[in-house]
Amino acid sequence: MYPERYKTLSACYKATLKTMLAETAKVEKQIDELTKKDPAVKRNIELLTSIPGIGKQNALQFILHTNNFKNFESANHLACYSGVVPFPNQSGVTIKRERVSKLANQKLKKLLHMGAMSCIRAHGELKDYYIRKVKEGKNKMLVINAIRNKLVHRMFAVIKRQTPYTNEIQEFAIRAN
Q1: Is the Cβ–Cβ distance between 120 and 144 less than 8 Å?
Q2: In this model, does residue 168 exceed pLDDT 70?
Q3: If exposure means fewest CB atoms within 10 Å of the residue's CB, which of 26, 109, 111, 157 is most exposed?
Q4: How far apart are CA 15 and CA 21, in angstroms?
Q5: pTM (2 d.p.)
């Protein structure tokens, strides 16, 4: 739209961008070296990234925040910590729509949101689920929150069984509820 502005800004920020990309590469290399030192962490990253919608950053953050999934005894407990479980919202006779807790780990919640949005854009059963529920008249954010919850259950099932994600894992996660 503004080719002259683009050329000027590109020239100004070229060195800064190059430095930032180099520093990012260094940090990613250090992360890879650290994960290679612990075989359990490395294995769990591989397992988690087998789930559609869960990338390396999501896997790393969940491993860090959950002490490699040792701090949580169930998927429901982890889902509650991640802020994807709705709670009743009522006072006396006034009953409102269920809400998720504001005390949840916001970083994990944001990462799950990005994973859910990735699943909705890609072809798969979660996209079909989203389309079906929206056609039924459900609120879009409510359906996205349900997909976030499904992702947490899938992550927990994959780690518990120590097998990569397949449709059998999906059935195990459903039965665990």
Answers
A1: yes
A2: no
A3: 26
A4: 10
A5: 0.81
